[in-house]
Amino acid sequence: MTTHHDLEKYDKAGMHKVYDIWPELAGESYKKNLDKIDFRGVDNIILIGMGDSGTIEDALSAILSKTGIHLCAVKGHHLQKVL
C-alpha cells in the first residue's frame, strides 16, 4: 500500500496535494461567473488525456457531437496526425 511517505518520496513536485484539494478547486471553479467561450470559427478541437483526465474527453465529445465541431480525443503517449 502506498503511504504518505511514499508520495512525498516519489512526488517531488507535490502533485498529490492538488488531488487532495480537488473537491474544493472544482467547487470554486463552478461558482465563478465566467464568460461563455466563443466557438465561432472553431471546427476542430484536440484534447489529450489518459485515465481520469481522459474521461472529460468523452463527455465533451458527446456534447460537441450535437454541433459542427469535431473533437479528437487522444488517450495515449503519442499524437497522431489528426487533421
Give an account of the 3D structure:
By secondary structure, the protein is of the alpha+beta class. The protein has two domains: 1-34, no CATH class; 38-83, no CATH class. Helices cover 43% and strands 12% of the residues. The protein has four helices and two strands. The chain has helices at residues 4-10, 15-20, 22-31, 52-64, and strands at residues 44-48, 70-74. The chain has a two-stranded parallel sheet with strand order 1-2. Helix 4 links the parallel strand 1 (44-48) and strand 2 (70-74). The longest helix is centred in the last third of the chain and has 13 residues, at 52-64. It is extended.
List keywords for this structure.
83 residues, alpha+beta, 2 domains, two-stranded parallel sheet, 43% helix, extended
SSE map:
Layout: H1 4-10, H2 15-20, H3 22-31, E1 44-48, H4 52-64, E2 70-74
Parallel strand pairs: 1-2
Major beta sheet, strand line-up: 1-2
The overall pLDDT, averaged over residues, is 83
Strand content: 5-15%
Oligomeric assembly: single chain
Number of domains in the coordinates? 2
Which ranges are low-confidence, i.e. pLDDT below 50, for 5 or more consecutive residues?
none
Q: Please estimate the helix content.
A: 40-55%
Termini separation:
43 Å
What would you call the structural class? alpha+beta
Radius of gyration from the CA trace? Answer: 17 Å
What's the tally of helices?
4
